[in-house]
Amino acid sequence: MSVATAGVGIFINLSIPRPEIGPNSNGGVDMKQSGGFLVWGASSSVGSTAVQIVHSLGFTVYAVCSPKHHDKTRQYGASHVFDYNDANVVTNILNAAKQSNQSIKYAFDAISENGSCEQVVSVLDQQGGGKAALTLGFPKDKQKPENVETSVIGAYSINTDAKEFGGWLFNGWLEKNLEDKTFVPSPEIQTVEGGIQAVSKAMDLHSKGLSGKKLVLPLA
Questions:
Q1: Radius of gyration of the chain from Cα atoms?
Q2: Cβ(168)–Cβ(21) under 8 Å?
Protein backbone atom coordinates (compact mmCIF):
# COMPACT_ATOMS: atom_id res chain seq x y z
CA MET A 1 0.00 0.00 0.00
CA SER A 2 2.91 2.35 0.67
CA VAL A 3 4.11 2.00 -2.92
CA ALA A 4 0.61 2.69 -4.23
CA THR A 5 0.16 5.78 -2.05
CA ALA A 6 3.60 7.21 -2.80
CA GLY A 7 3.36 6.40 -6.50
CA VAL A 8 -0.10 7.92 -6.97
CA GLY A 9 0.90 11.01 -5.03
CA ILE A 10 4.07 11.61 -7.02
CA PHE A 11 3.07 10.62 -10.54
CA ILE A 12 -0.67 11.41 -10.55
CA ASN A 13 -1.30 14.13 -7.95
CA LEU A 14 1.93 16.02 -8.69
CA SER A 15 2.03 15.04 -12.39
CA ILE A 16 5.73 14.12 -12.33
CA PRO A 17 6.57 12.41 -15.67
CA ARG A 18 7.06 8.65 -15.43
CA PRO A 19 10.50 7.27 -16.32
CA GLU A 20 10.61 4.80 -19.19
CA ILE A 21 10.74 1.14 -18.20
CA GLY A 22 11.62 -1.70 -20.55
CA PRO A 23 14.38 -3.34 -22.60
CA ASN A 24 14.67 -0.40 -25.00
CA SER A 25 14.67 2.30 -22.34
CA ASN A 26 17.72 3.99 -20.91
CA GLY A 27 16.41 3.88 -17.36
CA GLY A 28 14.81 7.27 -17.73
CA VAL A 29 18.17 9.03 -18.00
CA ASP A 30 16.79 11.58 -20.46
CA MET A 31 13.88 12.32 -18.11
CA LYS A 32 15.87 12.97 -14.92
CA GLN A 33 14.32 15.69 -12.81
CA SER A 34 16.15 18.45 -10.98
CA GLY A 35 15.54 20.83 -8.13
CA GLY A 36 14.31 20.20 -4.61
CA PHE A 37 11.48 17.97 -3.45
CA LEU A 38 10.16 18.07 0.14
CA VAL A 39 8.99 14.87 1.86
CA TRP A 40 7.40 15.33 5.29
CA GLY A 41 7.11 12.20 7.43
CA ALA A 42 10.05 10.66 5.60
CA SER A 43 10.65 7.78 8.02
CA SER A 44 7.11 6.39 7.74
CA SER A 45 6.25 3.53 5.41
CA VAL A 46 4.73 5.86 2.81
CA GLY A 47 7.26 8.63 3.39
CA SER A 48 10.36 6.44 3.06
CA THR A 49 8.92 4.98 -0.14
CA ALA A 50 8.34 8.48 -1.48
CA VAL A 51 11.93 9.44 -0.64
CA GLN A 52 13.24 6.51 -2.66
CA ILE A 53 11.02 7.18 -5.66
CA VAL A 54 11.78 10.90 -5.72
CA HIS A 55 15.52 10.27 -5.33
CA SER A 56 15.46 7.80 -8.23
CA LEU A 57 13.87 10.47 -10.42
CA GLY A 58 16.80 12.83 -9.88
CA PHE A 59 15.34 15.31 -7.39
CA THR A 60 17.30 16.56 -4.40
CA VAL A 61 15.29 15.28 -1.44
CA TYR A 62 14.62 17.50 1.58
CA ALA A 63 13.25 15.13 4.21
CA VAL A 64 11.56 15.80 7.55
CA CYS A 65 11.40 13.14 10.27
CA SER A 66 12.53 12.25 13.78
CA PRO A 67 16.28 12.70 14.39
CA LYS A 68 16.66 9.01 15.29
CA HIS A 69 15.76 8.15 11.70
CA HIS A 70 17.96 10.72 9.96
CA ASP A 71 20.77 8.30 9.06
CA LYS A 72 18.37 5.73 7.61
CA THR A 73 16.53 8.42 5.67
CA ARG A 74 19.82 9.53 4.12
CA GLN A 75 20.41 5.92 3.10
CA TYR A 76 17.06 6.01 1.30
CA GLY A 77 18.28 8.98 -0.74
CA ALA A 78 17.63 12.18 1.18
CA SER A 79 20.29 14.87 0.77
CA HIS A 80 19.00 17.14 3.55
CA VAL A 81 17.24 15.89 6.70
CA PHE A 82 15.40 17.98 9.29
CA ASP A 83 13.83 17.46 12.70
CA TYR A 84 10.05 17.92 12.57
CA ASN A 85 10.08 18.94 16.26
CA ASP A 86 12.38 21.89 15.59
CA ALA A 87 10.42 25.15 15.87
CA ASN A 88 12.59 26.54 13.06
CA VAL A 89 12.16 23.59 10.70
CA VAL A 90 10.60 25.65 7.89
CA THR A 91 13.36 28.26 8.11
CA ASN A 92 15.99 25.51 8.18
CA ILE A 93 14.58 23.94 5.02
CA LEU A 94 14.48 27.27 3.22
CA ASN A 95 18.04 28.08 4.26
CA ALA A 96 19.30 24.71 3.04
CA ALA A 97 17.59 25.22 -0.32
CA LYS A 98 19.07 28.69 -0.62
CA GLN A 99 22.56 27.44 0.21
CA SER A 100 22.17 24.72 -2.43
CA ASN A 101 20.86 27.30 -4.93
CA GLN A 102 17.73 25.22 -5.44
CA SER A 103 14.01 25.82 -5.44
CA ILE A 104 11.47 23.43 -3.94
CA LYS A 105 8.34 23.28 -6.07
CA TYR A 106 6.97 19.89 -5.04
CA ALA A 107 6.09 18.37 -1.68
CA PHE A 108 4.71 15.09 -0.36
CA ASP A 109 3.15 15.10 3.11
CA ALA A 110 2.91 11.54 4.46
CA ILE A 111 1.58 12.81 7.82
CA SER A 112 -0.92 15.58 6.98
CA GLU A 113 -1.84 16.35 10.58
CA ASN A 114 -0.52 18.12 13.68
CA GLY A 115 0.45 21.16 11.63
CA SER A 116 2.46 19.39 8.94
CA CYS A 117 0.23 20.56 6.07
CA GLU A 118 0.59 24.18 7.06
CA GLN A 119 4.37 23.91 7.30
CA VAL A 120 4.67 22.09 3.97
CA VAL A 121 2.56 24.77 2.29
CA SER A 122 4.60 27.50 3.98
CA VAL A 123 7.81 26.16 2.43
CA LEU A 124 6.27 26.11 -1.05
CA ASP A 125 4.71 29.54 -0.58
CA GLN A 126 8.04 31.10 0.37
CA GLN A 127 9.64 29.39 -2.61
CA GLY A 128 7.24 31.13 -4.97
CA GLY A 129 4.51 28.49 -5.03
CA GLY A 130 4.19 24.84 -5.96
CA LYS A 131 2.20 21.63 -5.60
CA ALA A 132 1.74 19.41 -2.56
CA ALA A 133 0.31 15.90 -2.35
CA LEU A 134 -1.33 15.21 1.03
CA THR A 135 -2.42 11.92 2.58
CA LEU A 136 -5.21 13.85 4.34
CA GLY A 137 -6.96 17.04 3.34
CA PHE A 138 -5.67 20.53 4.10
CA PRO A 139 -7.30 21.82 7.33
CA LYS A 140 -10.53 23.63 6.50
CA ASP A 141 -9.98 26.15 9.28
CA LYS A 142 -6.62 27.23 7.83
CA GLN A 143 -6.01 29.60 4.94
CA LYS A 144 -3.95 28.24 2.07
CA PRO A 145 -1.84 30.56 -0.14
CA GLU A 146 -3.21 30.95 -3.66
CA ASN A 147 0.15 30.03 -5.20
CA VAL A 148 0.15 26.56 -3.65
CA GLU A 149 -1.96 23.74 -5.08
CA THR A 150 -2.83 20.86 -2.76
CA SER A 151 -4.58 17.58 -3.46
CA VAL A 152 -5.44 14.47 -1.46
CA ILE A 153 -3.86 11.20 -2.55
CA GLY A 154 -6.31 8.46 -3.55
CA ALA A 155 -4.24 5.27 -3.67
CA TYR A 156 -7.41 3.26 -4.35
CA SER A 157 -7.47 4.74 -7.88
CA ILE A 158 -5.03 2.06 -9.09
CA ASN A 159 -7.98 -0.33 -8.87
CA THR A 160 -10.47 2.00 -10.56
CA ASP A 161 -9.66 4.73 -13.07
CA ALA A 162 -5.85 4.37 -12.91
CA LYS A 163 -5.46 0.65 -13.54
CA GLU A 164 -2.98 1.23 -16.36
CA PHE A 165 -0.83 3.29 -14.02
CA GLY A 166 -1.06 0.59 -11.34
CA GLY A 167 0.22 -1.98 -13.83
CA TRP A 168 3.13 0.27 -14.78
CA LEU A 169 3.95 1.04 -11.14
CA PHE A 170 3.98 -2.52 -9.81
CA ASN A 171 4.81 -4.63 -12.87
CA GLY A 172 7.21 -2.12 -14.40
CA TRP A 173 8.83 0.44 -12.12
CA LEU A 174 8.78 -1.54 -8.86
CA GLU A 175 9.83 -4.84 -10.43
CA LYS A 176 12.78 -3.22 -12.22
CA ASN A 177 13.97 -1.25 -9.21
CA LEU A 178 13.74 -4.26 -6.91
CA GLU A 179 15.83 -6.25 -9.38
CA ASP A 180 18.36 -3.42 -9.66
CA LYS A 181 18.36 -3.02 -5.85
CA THR A 182 17.67 0.70 -6.31
CA PHE A 183 14.55 0.31 -4.17
CA VAL A 184 14.28 -1.51 -0.84
CA PRO A 185 11.08 -2.23 1.10
CA SER A 186 10.90 0.20 3.98
CA PRO A 187 10.81 0.72 6.88
CA GLU A 188 12.50 -2.24 8.58
CA ILE A 189 10.27 -5.13 9.69
CA GLN A 190 9.80 -6.15 13.31
CA THR A 191 8.32 -9.64 13.63
CA VAL A 192 5.82 -10.35 16.39
CA GLU A 193 5.62 -14.10 16.98
CA GLY A 194 2.47 -15.86 18.14
CA GLY A 195 0.19 -15.76 15.14
CA ILE A 196 -3.29 -14.33 15.39
CA GLN A 197 -3.11 -14.55 19.20
CA ALA A 198 -0.34 -11.94 19.15
CA VAL A 199 -2.53 -9.18 17.68
CA SER A 200 -3.05 -7.56 21.07
CA LYS A 201 0.69 -7.69 21.74
CA ALA A 202 1.36 -5.98 18.40
CA MET A 203 -1.27 -3.34 19.15
CA ASP A 204 0.40 -2.66 22.51
CA LEU A 205 3.77 -2.20 20.81
CA HIS A 206 2.19 0.18 18.30
CA SER A 207 0.39 2.19 20.99
CA LYS A 208 3.68 2.72 22.84
CA GLY A 209 4.97 4.80 19.94
CA LEU A 210 6.46 2.44 17.37
CA SER A 211 8.53 4.48 14.93
CA GLY A 212 10.57 3.62 11.87
CA LYS A 213 9.46 -0.02 11.83
CA LYS A 214 6.63 -2.09 10.42
CA LEU A 215 5.07 -4.84 12.53
CA VAL A 216 4.55 -8.24 10.88
CA LEU A 217 2.62 -11.16 12.41
CA PRO A 218 3.44 -14.52 10.74
CA LEU A 219 0.28 -16.66 10.60
CA ALA A 220 1.93 -19.94 9.57
A1: 18
A2: yes
Determine the Cα–Cα distance for residues 62 and 96; give it in Å rounded to an integer. 9
Outline where the chain has alpha helix (H): 2-7, 45-57, 70-76, 89-99, 116-126, 163-168, 175-179, 199-207
- The contacts of residue 185 (CB under 8 Å, 6+ apart) are none
pLDDT tens readout for residues 79-100: 999 999 999 999 999 999 999 9
Q: What does pTM read for this prediction?
A: 0.85
Beta carbons within 10 angstroms of residue 199's beta carbon:
13
Distances (CA, A) of 63 to 1, 112, 179: 21, 14, 25
Residue 215 pLDDT:
63
DSSP track, 81-136: EEETT-TTHHHHHHHHHHHTT--EEEEEESS--TTHHHHHHHHHHHTT-EEEEESS
Q: What are phi and psi of 82, to 5 degrees?
A: -130, 150
Residue type, 52: Q
Torsion angle (degrees, nearest 10) of CA 83, 88, 94, 99: -80
Per the CB < 8 A criterion, the answer to whether 177 and 56 are in contact is yes
Question: Would you state the torsion angle of the CA atoms of residues 188, 193, 195, 200, taken in this order, to the nearest 10 degrees?
Answer: -80
Average pLDDT over residues 178-190: 78
